[in-house]
Amino acid sequence: MKTKYQIFDSIVDRPLHKVTRAEARRHFQHFIESIPFRIEALQSLVADVGIKLDFSEESIDMLDEWFPTVVSAQKKEDGTTVPSDETFSICNDLGMYLGEMLRCSSPNMKWHFVTDDKRNIAYQRPVILICPKNPKYHNFEIDFDDGLCRYAYRLVRGKPIEPRFIRGIFDNIKEWL
Q1: If we measure between CA atoms, which residue out of 43, 38, 46 comes closest to residue 69?
Q2: pTM value surpassing 0.90
Q3: Cβ atoms of residues 113 and 26 within 8 Å
Q4: Are the CB atoms for 166 and 119 separated by under 8 Å?
């Protein structure tokens, strides 16, 4: 039986870089509080195809294969094709799972609310902040949700599937640490 998937309620009605700091902070708090429930919703969705979200390397590979199969499109009023609301929600939930996978794997990683520079693409967004042990590298942010949404845009516009997209992100992060 196919699971009914509940779309994430982000509690804001426009992009985070366009809301007030107070609205963005409330969104961040809501995002953090929602992580266990959203990962549970994602687990229910992927269980239908035999994927177990157990923070394993194998789960990354299985999600890499699964994600392009669930990306769906919708037409905007101006006729442009964009990912569906459900796809955006799946990107969010998958980003939470991947972020938690990283955060739980190292004390050098944590969820972070970006407020330092309005020109930062992650401005007012929840990201994973990585503080590498190696002093030759600076702190950096990973915004899985943004990366997955950009990939979803490519897919709905007919661009080819990128094999090992998610795995590639994880492998690059490991190199930096």
Answers
A1: 46
A2: yes
A3: no
A4: no
